[in-house]
Amino acid sequence: MSQSYNRGLIEDFGRWKEFSAGMWAWIFHKFTGWVLIGYLFTHIAVLSTSIGGAQGETTMVDGEAVNVYTATLQGLESLFLIRLLEIGLLAVAVFHILNGLRLLMVDLGIGLDSQDKSFYASLVLTGAITVASVPTFLTGVSI
Amino acid sequence: MSTQQAEPESQEAPKDPEMQGAESPAAETQEGDGAVDQTSTDASELDGETVHIKVFRYDPEVEGKQEPRFDDFHVPFEKGMTVLDAVMYARDEYDSSLTFRHSCRQAVCGSDAFFVNGKQRLGCKTQIADLEAPVRIEPLPHQEVVKDLVVDMDHFYDQMHTVEPYFQDEDTPAVDDLEEQRQSPENREKIKMSSRCIWCGACMSSCNIAAGDNEYLGPAAINKAYKFAMDDRESEEIKEHRLRILEQEHGVWRCQTQFSCTEVCPKDIPLTEHIQELKREAVKKNLKFW
Hints:
The structure holds two protein chains of two kinds.
Chain A: H1 8-13, H2 21-47, H3 49-54, E1 58-61, E2 64-67, H4 68-77, H5 80-107, H6 115-138
Antiparallel strand pairs in A: 1-2
Chain B: E1 9-10, H1 17-33, E2 50-57, E3 69-76, H2 83-93, E4 113-116, E5 119-122, E6 135-138, E7 145-147, E8 150-151, H3 154-162, H4 185-192, H5 202-206, H6 208-212, H7 219-229, H8 236-246, H9 260-264, H10 271-286
Parallel strand pairs in B: 2-6
Antiparallel strand pairs in B: 1-3, 2-3, 4-5, 4-6, 7-8
Helix pairs in contact in B: 3-7, 7-8, 7-10, 8-10
């Protein structure tokens, strides 16, 4: 064999429409996992303002001195974008948890024949919980 | 099989003189009556007389064929026709240079695994009537193409041999003192499905973990190891030896339970289930309570 043809990664990714349920579950699980890791860092960054808050550090909000931790939280929560991101975060976390449980069952050899159905069920449940959470997350937000 | 309408077309690359020669009778028909519909994608083509197949072509040794492309063939359709029948007809009647592997035609030898309409399938087992036209036939993904539909299987075979796919028993009696080595019906039942592997490589080709990790043993090799590791006739020491091979970094733990291998296996082997069971065996072996 003097030469051969390697179709490469680009051609592989070009086949995304042919991915199976199990493969989509894998992709979504990895994606949501990375999003949750990213969120943890921003969460720690926000929490770190409590150190200043505990030491009595304040910041001016509408001409009033407010504890820096409270001001940070209130400032973030008043943003529409943050509320939307929180809904997204909930969706990501719920899917990751449900699919994690699905994977646990797979690891234990339970329900292997219906692995695709359990993936679809995870998606549907995630969607339902996310939609149900919208009123709660968007209450009192100023756009 | 009678020819009622059969015209090859080629797209995405100019035909070389040799190829035109091979196709000349049909080419004349094409030019003569202009009956070929190059853009036809209608599944109802089957109701007519022909089936439209698009076959991946690549030949590194012929000038002008080194650029991968798809050739179109319109093959006379007959009830019960398989994908293998269609490509064989195309080779025999239109282009003798069309290259692919096949052997037994009974879904037993595993030679003719192709990527048909976006899924790894055995050509001889796949009915044309079950597929949407045009039927797109490509070599197995994630393996280098040697020519047309022929892929390089060396790495696949290497991985299969890594797991020592043969029966071993330290207690096997001497040749002149051989005894029947009996297996319980229950044990036979347990390894029955795993013993159906025909080494076609469809599972390995569908696994994108194997595609990204060249050292990963892959579903076929792990399934083969499962067949022996779960066989009661091998000693405990041999089973431990097998598990040591399987529990290494690029062994069973690389499986990400995508179920792609299980879905494409032409012999319906529950590959993912076997891999998961071996994971549990590996954990059990290493669990120590003290």
